[in-house]
Specification:
single chain, 115 residues, alpha+beta, binds zinc ion
């Protein structure tokens, strides 16, 4: 990824972020997908384990419901630290990860303002 490729804006759009990149790409990044790809050591460990059919959600996960970022702060010029509604904040999401987890939004040909 080129070093000058940066998000121009990151907005909340329902249960996803809508990211406008400096090269013109607009992509949505669903919160659930971001949370599932949390790059921290703890989550990497969890994902490396074989699937546990008896795994149940922790009380905190149940209470939190759908993962929603409650805070997002820049880390240097290359990443964001996201704090989730379940309190987890160990993941540092690089711009590269943000870019790769995004689903491009087709440019709208509709010239009318959305209803
Ligand atoms: Zn994590």
């Amino acid at each position: 990824m080129p070093a000058d490729l940066l998000p121009l804006s990151i907005k909340r759009d329902g249960v996803a972020f809508r990211v406008e990149w400096s090269d013109g790409l607009v992509a949505t990044v669903p919160f659930q997908k971001l949370r599932d790809h949390c790059p921290c050591a703890g989550c990497n460990d969890e994902r490396a384990k074989p699937a546990d059919p008896f795994r149940v959600l922790s009380a905190r996960e149940v209470a939190a419901g759908l993962p929603v970022p409650v805070a997002m702060k820049p880390v240097g010029h290359y990443a964001y630290q996201i704090t989730w509604n379940d309190g987890h904040d160990a993941g540092i999401f690089t711009l590269d990860a943000l870019r790769h987890l995004g689903q491009p939004v087709a440019p709208s040909k509709d010239t009318h303002a959305p209803a």
